[in-house]
């Protein structure tokens, strides 16, 4: 109180001088409503300048708290996705049908086969095939071809195959002969139809099939059969349509498979069995790995484990004089507590590890047999678990426990048994890939014998796999990239490293390359580049930096900056508002005075 | 053919039991697997663990040792001179060292990959050894010295069953059969000391085509306290009687047979030199017959103690160096026992025995000096143990007798050691550094890059009673990100290693075929220098208040805002107008007091009192404004809450 009065008294004279001349001269001049001078703009200008510079600072602040995001080619990812979704990937296939001893027009045969093919073909929603067919009718010295200019039919030398080649009963020799005739530079699937005495239909282990038909065969029936073998066997690999297994490939994201073979001695106190794995590895497995080269890079390792009982119990069957393990308990056979099969250090990364287990039962559960759902005893005494591997139970000869002998003396699984076992393993491996191991294909139009390959997989099966692999890889690459782009777009405050951007770009490039290679029919390189595309896509999706979503969240930003910006912006905003209001009021006053003075004068 | 194949991969299991002077029992499990190159190269294994051979091949590990330890080896009462403490007493936590067979520039990468692999394999945070601040490359003081060596420790790693289970997985029989059955988790982890070790050596590399293989040694050393109730009852008066124990009483289990895959499966009972000398002494006193020496036939029948099983063999140490006495080793073959007749060795003491274990020449301990959060000093003190005086005196005849001591110490970068401040005291007298330190190698720490390493060779006079090394340090500041979650606990400085290269911890037994066959005994015969680890130190560093950055931000922002606001106010203030306004307001004061005052003054002046123009209206207006403001703030708060929740 005293202060105010003090200041009042001290500033009074000063104040009085500044106050506009008291309206003694003009009695109706009200200082609350009018003023004589123009209101000053100085303070308004000042506060507005501050306000604008404050507002101008915001974009800089925004820029400074921005996080680094490498630009991802979202549009290209989307186009890859839509492209793979809408127009299916087309693999070009060349079929060649050769008729020996027939007397008909190749064009007519071709048309009838083509119509049969379209009947049989079921459209795979993901990948389909773009096939061309050429038909040759061989009359010995000369032949009729259609289409005449096709490079596939021209590569065949007329008369190089005669009906007498098929008289012999040795299918393997016929297959070799066909391979030597047809092995051109181009990959084509050929079917030879020969008139002969006995009826026979064989699919070889390369890319050829032949059919010996009796004299009375109609061309149409032959066409049906040819179409079926081309579509069902060569294109689809003799597998059932639409089985789920076809979708999955047990191949790691880096295109590697590790086959881990384990010999489990359930109880080494009863007996200890060892195996000569090296021989098997060098013999049986090496050729199969070689054959599957285009699809996956396979490595093999083995170990022997002890004290590994199975997880569930078997019961004694008096009639069979053996312990029987029923089918419904099969999920509980693998004992993940005691079977420390382990992942492989050598493999690393995202390789797929398939475990193959030979289970040697202990004396009290020997012989152990696996029962099929229909009550019969399994012939292979083994089972597979998709995407995991397979198990075979091997019962020692006679199940005789040599209690007197030291079990450490070590038995060896006889080589014959071991070979049988590994044949079953190869069968299981084929089954994991979706192939059957019966050497007969029973189609709608008849039965075809399939020649098994000593390499485990025939050439046409590997072709099927590599087509499927390419298709699967490309789709999985596209979906991975698609989810990455969705993730990135949904989290605007996520840091994206340059490396991810680079990987995405490389993955897209590889996918493009794979597509173009696939459409030009180069399976090996398209499989390789599709594998690369998939592994790069997975790399970018599982990049460690993406896992840790940025801690620099909006809340954090708010907490750090609000103590400054909230009070300051309040000050500035209020000041600007007040000044503006005051200026308006004063201006109104001035205008009122002006109007008044105008009317007065 | 069959036999040759069998010899390629071998597995041996052994257990050594040893009574300790302080009424405890040492159990030392020793498992050895070996594989020759031809089997290990192809990735096909019969006995040898697949994981280890893949690890050796992938990272080209020449030699590696990994140990998980809980508790501290009590060098004073459990001894420090035998092969067991000098190669199996390990610092607490995890210790890992590895020698690689790769070019120099690849070693660090190999080490980092190896740490990650091991951390996955053993369920431990060994991957923390990946960062360059945690490992070092000793030049020559660490015993398997070599340029390709990397050494790292994690003193604070907790060790428990999750580390033991993967370790057991590497054994062909795991803990299902054989000696490993004894590894009952509760009794092992109840012990005073527990150290689980994995040591592997690969000889020769595949590319050179030499005869080579991998030897994997897994040892588990535990010090347990036997339940001495029974003994206490029988000899209530005797305080000094050693507790009697059996395998069942210390492990709660017994061995019911061998692991069928083991080539040999033996249990040994070791009576150390001091104990044997004491027993002999007692025996002589009692018998008075003064038979010279003892033979393997008569010794164990002596009435001082009783064993439940007859040993299959007795080994007596060849006593060439030490006059004190020779240790005696009883061998029991587990093969002779079966499930119906399990092996349960028990030892019953009949007379009280007191003895001391053989010590390393100097007892090393390390401690911190100084106080406060700024600086301090590390001191390593070496004290002569009386026991070793005897054999030191043997070659102390000539004046220039020296005792060589190697010191290896790693110091983390945030403990900034001043190497110039190194001081040496011998028998409490300061000595010139050049007199004592024969060789020194120092690699100073780099902030946030590498730890400081100090390697020294000391030459102390043989008659030394005590020696001390001190070195001063400053405590560094860490970045806020670098503090561990429990920063207030302090930071560990890994144990220093003190080794005595002139003393070899070995026990030489009479040359015999069976000694060479046993991996444990042949390990004992190896001449390895006596080594001991000092304590790990705990250095408290200044721990910041971790909310500090936010506090600082808030305070500075508030100050800035105040400054900004007041400056703005000053700029746009109209002093003249405000005063006019104030005056008007003062004139219109509507308070009750001012009303009364004005009335009073009016009366005094004798004039008609005029009421102020609009007091009721203004007061209601103010109230409305206030209410509006309160509602606005509340509305804002509610809106805020709603928006963010």
Question: Can you tell me about this structure?
Answer:
The complex is a heterodimer of chains A (601) and B (645). Chain A is an alpha/beta fold. Among the domains of chain A are: 41-64 and 554-600; 89-242 and 456-462; 256-433, no CATH class. Chain A is built from 14 helices and 18 strands. Chain A has an eight-stranded mixed beta sheet with strand order 3-2-1-4-6-5-18-17, sandwiched between helices. In chain A, a hairpin with a 4-residue loop joins strand 2 and strand 3 (143-146). In chain A, helix 8 runs parallel beside helix 9 (415-432). The radius of gyration of chain A is 42 Å and the shape is elongated. The relative contact order of chain A is 0.12. Residues 1-7, 206-211, 231-237, 289-297, 388-398 and 614-618 of chain B have low confidence and may be disordered. Chain B contains 20 helices and 26 strands. Among the domains of chain B are: 10-40 and 47-228 and 241-282 and 301-349, no CATH class; 362-390 and 399-495 and 535-539, Immunoglobulin-like, CATH 2.60.40. An eleven-stranded mixed beta sheet of chain B has the order 5-6-4-3-7-8-2-1-10-13-12. A five-stranded antiparallel beta sheet of chain B has the order 15-16-22-18-19. Chain B has a five-stranded antiparallel beta sheet with strand order 20-21-17-24-25. Helix content of chain B is 31%, strand content 29%. Chains A and B meet through helix 1, helix 2, helix 8, strand 9 and helix 14 of A and helix 3, helix 17 and helix 18 of B.
């Amino acid at each position: 109180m005293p202060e105010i009065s003090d200041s009042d008294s001290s500033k009074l004279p000063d104040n009085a001088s500044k106050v506009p001349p008291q309206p003694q001269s003009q009695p109706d001049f009200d200082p609350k409503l009018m003023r004589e001078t123009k209101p000053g703009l100085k303070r308004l200008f000042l506060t507005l300048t501050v306000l604008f510079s404050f507002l101008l600072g915001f974009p800089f602040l925004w820029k400074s708290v921005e996080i680094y995001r490498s630009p991802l080619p979202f549009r290209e990812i989307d186009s890859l996705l839509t492209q793979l979704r809408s127009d299916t990937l087309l693999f070009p296939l060349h079929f060649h049908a050769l008729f020996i001893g027939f007397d008909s027009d190749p064009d007519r045969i071709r048309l009838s086969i083509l119509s049969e093919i379209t009947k049989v073909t079921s459209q795979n929603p993901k990948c389909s095939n773009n096939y061309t067919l050429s038909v040759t009718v061989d009359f010995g010295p000369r032949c009729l071809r259609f289409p005449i200019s096709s490079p596939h039919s021209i590569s065949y030398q007329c008369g190089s195959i005669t009906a007498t080649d098929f008289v012999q009963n040795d299918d393997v020799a016929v297959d070799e002969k066909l391979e030597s005739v047809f092995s051109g530079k181009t990959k084509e699937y050929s079917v030879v139809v020969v008139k002969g005495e006995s009826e026979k239909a064989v699919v070889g282990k390369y890319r050829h099939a032949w059919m010996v038909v009796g004299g009375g065969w109609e061309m149409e029936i032959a066409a049906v059969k040819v179409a079926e073998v081309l579509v069902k066997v060569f294109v689809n690999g003799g597998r059932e349509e639409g089985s789920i297994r076809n979708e999955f490939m047990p191949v790691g994201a880096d295109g590697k498979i590790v086959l881990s073979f384990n010999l489990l001695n359930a109880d080494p106190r009863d007996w200890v069995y060892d195996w000569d794995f090296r021989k098997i590895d060098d013999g049986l497995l090496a050729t199969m790995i070689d054959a599957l080269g285009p699809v996956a890079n396979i490595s093999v390792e083995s170990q022997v484990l002890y004290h590994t009982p199975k997880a569930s119990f078997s019961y004694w069957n008096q009639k069979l004089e053996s312990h029987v393990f029923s089918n419904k308990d099969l999920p509980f056979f693998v004992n993940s507590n005691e079977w420390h099969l382990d992942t492989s250090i050598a493999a690393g990364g995202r390789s797929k590890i398939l475990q193959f287990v030979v289970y040697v039962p202990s004396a009290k559960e020997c012989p152990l047999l696996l029962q099929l759902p229909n009550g019969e005893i399994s012939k292979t005494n083994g089972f597979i678990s998709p995407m995991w591997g397979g198990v075979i139970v091997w019962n020692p000869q006679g199940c005789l426990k040599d209690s007197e002998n030291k079990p450490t003396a070590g038995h060896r699984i006889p080589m014959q048994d071991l070979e049988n076992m590994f044949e079953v393993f190869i069968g299981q491996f084929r089954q994991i890939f979706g192939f059957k191991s019966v050497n007969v294909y029973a189609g709608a139009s008849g039965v075809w014998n399939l020649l098994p390959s000593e390499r485990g997989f025939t050439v046409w099966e590997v072709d099927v796999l590599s087509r499927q692999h390419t298709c699967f890889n490309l789709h999985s690459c596209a979906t991975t990239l698609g989810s990455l782009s969705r993730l990135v777009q949904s989290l605007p405050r996520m840091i994206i490293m340059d490396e991810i951007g680079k990987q995405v770009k490389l993955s897209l490039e590889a996918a493009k390359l794979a597509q173009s290679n696939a459409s030009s029919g180069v399976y090996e390189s398209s499989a390789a580049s599709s594998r690369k595309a998939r592994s790069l896509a997975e790399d970018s999706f599982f990049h460690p930096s993406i896992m840790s979503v940025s801690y620099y969240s909006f809340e954090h930003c708010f907490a750090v900056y609000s103590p400054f910006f909230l009070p300051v912006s309040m000050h500035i905003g209020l000041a600007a508002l007040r000044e503006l209001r005051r200026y308006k009021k004063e201006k109104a006053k001035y205008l009122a005075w002006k109007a008044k003075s105008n009317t007065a004068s | 053919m069959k036999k040759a194949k069998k010899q390629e991969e071998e597995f041996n299991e052994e257990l050594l039991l040893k009574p300790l002077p302080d009424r405890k029992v040492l159990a030392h499990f020793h498992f050895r697997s070996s594989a020759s190159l031809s089997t290990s190269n192809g990735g096909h294994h019969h006995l040898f663990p697949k994981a280890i051979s893949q690890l050796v091949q992938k990272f080209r590990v020449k030699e590696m040792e990994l140990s998980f330890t809980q508790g501290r080896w009590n060098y004073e009462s459990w001894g420090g001179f035998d092969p067991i403490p000098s190669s199996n007493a390990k610092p607490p936590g995890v210790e890992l060292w590895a020698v690689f067979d790769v070019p120099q520039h690849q070693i660090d990468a190999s080490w980092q990959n190896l740490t990650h692999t091991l951390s996955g394999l053993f369920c431990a945070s060994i991957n923390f050894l990946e960062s360059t601040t945690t490992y070092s490359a000793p030049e020559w003081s660490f015993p398997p010295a070599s340029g390709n060596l990397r050494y790292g420790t994690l003193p604070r790693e907790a060790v428990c069953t999750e580390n033991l289970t993967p370790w057991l997985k590497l054994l062909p029989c795991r803990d299902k059969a054989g000696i490993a059955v004894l590894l009952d988790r509760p009794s092992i982890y109840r012990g005073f000391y527990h150290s689980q070790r994995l040591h592997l050596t690969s000889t020769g590399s595949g590319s050179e085509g030499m005869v080579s293989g991998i030897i994997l040694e897994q040892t588990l050393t535990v010090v347990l306290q036997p339940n001495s109730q029974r003994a206490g009852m029988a000899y209530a008066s005797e305080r000094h009687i050693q507790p009697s124990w059996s395998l069942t009483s210390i492990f709660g289990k017994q061995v019911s047979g061998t692991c069928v895959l083991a080539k040999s499966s033996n249990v040994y009972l070791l009576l150390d030199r001091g104990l044997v000398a004491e027993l002999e002494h007692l025996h002589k006193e009692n018998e008075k017959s003064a038979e010279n020496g003892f033979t393997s036939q008569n010794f164990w029948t002596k009435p001082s103690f009783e064993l439940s099983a007859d040993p299959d063999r007795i080994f007596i140490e060849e006593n060439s160096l030490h006059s004190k006495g020779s240790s005696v080793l009883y061998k029991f073959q587990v093969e002779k026992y079966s499930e119906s007749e399990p092996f349960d060795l028990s030892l019953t003491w009949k007379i009280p025995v007191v003895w001391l274990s053989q010590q390393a020449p100097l007892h090393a301990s390390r401690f911190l000096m100084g106080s406060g959060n700024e600086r301090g000093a590390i001191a390593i003190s070496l004290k002569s143990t009386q026991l070793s005086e005897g054999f030191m005196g043997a070659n102390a005849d000539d004046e220039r007798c020296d005792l060589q001591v190697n010191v290896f110490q790693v110091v983390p970068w945030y403990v900034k050691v001043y190497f110039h401040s190194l001081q040496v005291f011998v028998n409490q007298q300061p000595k010139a550094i050049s007199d004592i330190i024969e060789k020194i190698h120092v690699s100073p720490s780099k902030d946030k890059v590498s730890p400081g390493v100090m390697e020294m060779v000391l030459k102390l006079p043989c008659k030394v009673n005590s020696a001390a090394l001190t070195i001063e340090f400053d405590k560094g500041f860490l970045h806020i990100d670098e503090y561990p979650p429990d920063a207030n606990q302090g930071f560990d400085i890994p144990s220093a290693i003190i080794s005595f290269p002139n003393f070899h911890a070995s026990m030489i037994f009479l040359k015999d075929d069976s000694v060479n066959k046993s991996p444990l005994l042949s390990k004992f015969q190896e001449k390895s220098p006596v080594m001991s680890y000092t304590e790990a130190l705990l250095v408290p560093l200044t721990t910041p208040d971790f909310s500090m950055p936010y506090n600082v931000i808030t305070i500075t922002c508030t100050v800035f805002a105040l400054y900004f606001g007041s400056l703005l106010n000053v700029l746009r203030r109209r002093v003249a107008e405000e005063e006019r306004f104030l005056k008007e307001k003062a004139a219109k004061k509507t308070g009750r007091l001012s009303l009364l005052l004005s009335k009073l003054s009016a009366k005094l002046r004798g004039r008609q009192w005029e009421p102020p123009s609009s007091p009721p209206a203004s007061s209601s207006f103010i109230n409305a404004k206030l209410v509006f403001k309160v509602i606005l703030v509340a509305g804002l708060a509610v809106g805020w809450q709603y928006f963010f929740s």
